[in-house]
Amino acid sequence: MANNDFDKRMEFLKKSYDRLPTSFNPEEVLQKIEGETNKPEQKESTVRRKRTFRYKVTVLAVSVASIFLFGFITALFITEHKEKLASDEYVEKLQHDYAVEREKQRDVLKLEEDKFSKLVFVAEADRIIENIADDREQAEVNYKRALSSLRLPSDLMQVIADQSLVEDEQASIDYLDTFFEKIKSLIIVYDEILVENQQVIEDFKMDPSIDKAAVMMLSPDTFPKGLQNMIDTMSEQYIELTMNRDTGEIMVHYYAPRLAEKVKSNFHPDTRGYVILALTRTGQPIVNDFDGRAEVTDKTITLPNHDFEQQVKSLYEQFKVAHDKTIFKGYSLVYIVGVFHYANDMEDPETIYYLTHSDDMTINIQQGRDYTVEEYVADWRKGVSLFDNAQQIVFSADSVKHIVANAVSATVQVVREDGTSEDAYFIWEDSREWQLFTDWLEPLP
Integer distance in angstroms from the first to the last C-alpha of the chain? Predict the structure, then answer.
């Protein structure tokens, strides 16, 4: 039975085989098989091509961005470089312009470079320019600061002549401080020139009764170039030569010319007394070209002193004629005290009156009003001399004090042998003169 089933199956297979198509192509079958086999590889290739395309696009984009960024950075660098070159050129121009202005100022003073560079305000201007800054805006600010520092006293006077600081007391004080600091700086350099020419000045012989300093100021082409240039230009900066009446020494001093009087009204009214303080701080005398002012530098006279006594007597004789305080120009306040003492000894109340009074100033506080000369003479009595048993007469510029808006006081101290002392007081106000405040002495017993 098993054999019969086998035979039937074989015959069925044969019949099935006979029904297969006779056009079978083995190559076509192989191609199909290969095609089926290769389908996953085609997908992978497509993905690979897509990935390759994306990669190329990314690389291209990065390349383009890099080129653009490089171009931008290059352009920015070139622009910054051009701007820096332009800024450097501008700074160089400012430095060049400063050098031109600096030379103009030196020509005004006719100073050699070694002297000019010693001026404090010039050295400060040079320092500012040396550190002017690379930034264009800051460089311009520093340039203007340097030019401001470079200005001379004459420049400051011209500037204030065209503006007003009447409403600003602090600005007035600051301006005056700057002015006097420049004056002080010039005087230091001028003193150096005097020392260098000391022998020449000593050889310039004059009669002792003649003001040698005044003659020197009016003697063109007489002295060596450095000294002559100083004399030719110093008055424009409100500085002049004066002669010490005691020693005959020629000195450099500040003086207040008419121009200064004209611009006085442009400062705050409470700063006029400050001017006197500023002058004493620089160690300069208060001198003027239209009224006399006593010197306010330190002075000590040891008594007895024959020369002092003779000078006091001479000044008394001159003053009693016309009561003209200009005779005290260049003399210390101790000489005014000396004349006061001598007038008391001579029982001359009229001379004392004019030493201690002025037309526009009430200083007789004891009586509460300003005396007429007739009233003063009628009431006057000879007093105890200030110089009785006196050992020294001393004036110190440190005694000058700003007391009220437009007034300054000063003190001359008379030191006695027993160590006690008595003070003689002075006051300066709008009268533009030092007035002796001590106008009454202790009556004689």
Answer: 188
Question: Tokens representing 53?
Answer: 């395309």
Partners of 252 in the β-ladder: 241
Taking the C-alpha atoms of residue 102 and residue 128, their distance in angstroms, rounded to an integer, is 13
The mean pLDDT value for 104-108 works out to 96
Range name among 54-63, 77-86, 189-198, 328-337 with the lowest pLDDT average: 77-86
Mean pLDDT across 356-383: 63
Q: Strands 407-416 and 401-404, how do they pair?
A: antiparallel
The Cβ of residue 246 has, within 10 Å, a number of other Cβ atoms equal to: 15
Burial readout 316-346 (b: 16 or more C-beta within 10 A, e: otherwise): beebbeeeebebbbbbbbbbbbbbbbbbbee
- Contact between 352 and 414 under an 8 Å Cβ cutoff? The reply is no
Token couple for 221? 């082409």
**Between the CA of residue 405 and those of 269, 428, 437, what are the distances in Å?**
8, 11, 18
CA distance 277 to 294: 14
Query: Using one digit for the tens of pLDDT, what is the confidence trace for 196-255?
Result: 999 999 998 887 777 888 888 887 678 999 999 999 999 889 898 988 777 788 989 887
Tokens of 432: 């533009």
